Amino acid sequence: MDDCIFCxxxxxxxxxxxxxxxxxxxxxxxxxxxxxxxxxxxxxRHITSLATIEEADAxxxxxxxAIANRLATENGSPDGFRVIINTGRVGQQEVQHxxxxxxxxxxPVGPMLKRI
Length: 116
Ligand code: AMP
Ligand code: ZN
Fold this sequence. Notes:
- It is built from three helices and five strands.
- Helix content is 19%, strand content 21%.
- The chain has 116 residues and is α+β, with helices and mostly antiparallel strands.
- A hairpin with a 3-residue loop joins strand 1 and strand 2 (25-29).
- The mean pLDDT is 97.
- The chain has a single domain, classed as HIT-like (HIT family, subunit A, 2-Layer Sandwich).
- Zinc ion binds at residues 1, 4, 6-7, 46, 97.
C-alpha cells in the first residue's frame, strides 16, 4: 500500500520511535500517547483491520499478541497492560492498517469503556 502511513513507518520512510522489529512485525511509540506507555504493534504486511483478516493472517496476529507482554515490560509497564484493536467504523479505527495499541504504565489504565 503506497499511501498507507503505517506501511511507510514499517518501511522506515516515515520516522517513528521504534521499539521492536522483526521480519513480520514492527512496534513503535504512539505519537499522541493516551497513557505513560502507549505502543503500537503492527504487521509489516498491509492488513486493513480485524474485519478483513483471513485464515492465513492468524500466525502473524498470534505473534503480534504474543510479543505485547515483552514490549510492555521493556517500555515501562511491567505489571500488566491493555491491548486495544480499534476496528472499522464502529470501532472508530482511524488508521486503516491493523494495529494493536499496548497501553499501560506504572498505574492502572482506568475503566475499559465509559458505560452509556
Ligand atoms: P486508531 O484510532 O486505533 O486508528 O489509532 C491510530 C493511532 O495512530 C492514534 O493513537 C494516533 O495517535 C497514532 N498515530 C497516527 N500517526 C502516527 C505516527 N506518525 N506515529 C505514531 N503514531 C501515530
Ligand atoms: Zn499499510
